[in-house]
User: Which sequence fits this backbone?
């Protein structure tokens, strides 16, 4: 800064300006509530973002969204939603997944429930819902990947427990155990 007076004298003083580096937006929260729905149901995606000039959520929610809001979605299959928050410094993304159809084991049976003798055949049978894969493991059975609905004949030599684990989209799992008794 330089100032001059009417008598011709000048005074100079330095002025320092500091520009702080900007920071990218911050996603405080981005969730689906509930995160698991049945086909035909709806859920809410809710978010809170600080320091952004633009917010968009894909697929299908839109852009130019408010910094703190919710949107109702009704996906027909398990879907991962991506929130992108942008400002002059950069952008950040966050994801949340809505699982459609909770994985269930509808039935898991042993026929007969009591093996008549050591090594006699027993049929394990199961039905699942919304499973993408299943694993069967037991007292004398190493982990076996099996059909999502099916059966397996075992020949137990002693009484034991067998566990069926069903895996669904988005990391969902459920397990059921059954005991088979050898007489």
Assistant:
């Amino acid at each position: 800064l330089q100032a001059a007076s009417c008598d011709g004298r000048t005074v100079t003083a330095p002025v320092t300006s500091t520009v702080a580096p900007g920071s990218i937006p911050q996603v405080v929260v981005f969730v689906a509530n509930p995160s698991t729905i049945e086909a035909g149901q709806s859920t809410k995606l809710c978010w809170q973002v600080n320091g952004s000039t633009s917010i968009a959520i894909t697929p299908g929610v839109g852009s130019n969204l408010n910094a703190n809001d919710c949107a109702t979605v009704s996906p027909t299959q398990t879907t991962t939603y991506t929130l992108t928050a942008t400002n002059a410094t950069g952008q950040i993304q966050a994801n949340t997944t809505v699982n459609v159809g909770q994985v269930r084991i509808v039935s898991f049976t042993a026929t007969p429930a009591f093996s008549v003798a050591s090594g006699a055949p027993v049929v394990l049978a199961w039905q699942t819902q919304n499973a993408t894969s299943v694993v069967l493991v037991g007292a004398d059975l190493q982990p076996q990947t099996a059909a999502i609905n099916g059966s397996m004949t075992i020949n137990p030599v002693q009484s034991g427990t067998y566990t069926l684990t069903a895996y669904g989209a988005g990391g969902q799992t459920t397990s059921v155990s059954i005991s088979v008794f050898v007489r």
Remarks:
- The mean pLDDT is 88.
- The first strand starts at residue 2 and ends at 4.
- The chain has no helices and 17 strands.
- The radius of gyration is 31 Å.
